[in-house]
Amino acid sequence: MLRYSVSIVFLLFHTLGFSQTMENDSLSVEKDSVADYWVRFEGDSILYSSIELDEVYLFGKLEFANKKEKLRYYILRRKTLKVYPYAKMAAERLVELTDSLQHIKKKRHRKKYTKKVQKYIEEEFSAELKKLTRTEGQILVKLIYRQTGKTAFDLVKELRSGWRAFWYNTTAKAFKINIKEEFHPESIHEDYLIEDILQRAFASNRLERQKSVLDYDYAQLSNKWKNGTAENKKN
């Protein structure tokens, strides 16, 4: 990760250095700092004074208070990596459904299309989801909220009926899965650990990144939990 960051910095300064050879007669700018140099991308006639780069996180070494905490993290990581693709897929299908419904005016046609998508999603998910354990199912519920900003209960309620959502919730409770559960890495330590697992997996290209719709900053979360008390981490 550190080598990757250094490479980006080197590339940035190399690009800026190369831009010094460009003709700037028409620009009345004094080059007193790096920010004053201009960059032209190949095939682009627009001059840029800066280059927007993706965020790059430098992860510290994982540290655990004891073997129990270490085992807990690695079990959570295995389960999170397993169910994240389903949450990502659910978010993608929801976006596709929402976009398509915007172009369907008649209520009857909207209802027919929604049922068609529902059937497709159920066929796509059901076989694999039945193989999940209770804890994997609960993590999936949290990640669905992370990716869509809606609980699994609300999604079922929107796509089906209130009664159907109630039935889903009652059935899930029998297996101790709460489909109304949300994702709050800023206040729940396990949720933060899940976010940490995801960010490390994104950085290593182990998982394909899909930005969360929730508003939080991973770096700030890391600082908070690093400096947090043991009591907070119990929540």
Automatic annotation (TrEMBL):
Pfam families for this protein: DUF4294
Q: Which InterPro entries does this entry report, sorted A to Z? A: DUF4294
Top-level lineage group: Bacteria
Protein name (record):
DUF4294 domain-containing protein
Protein source organism: Flagellimonas nanhaiensis
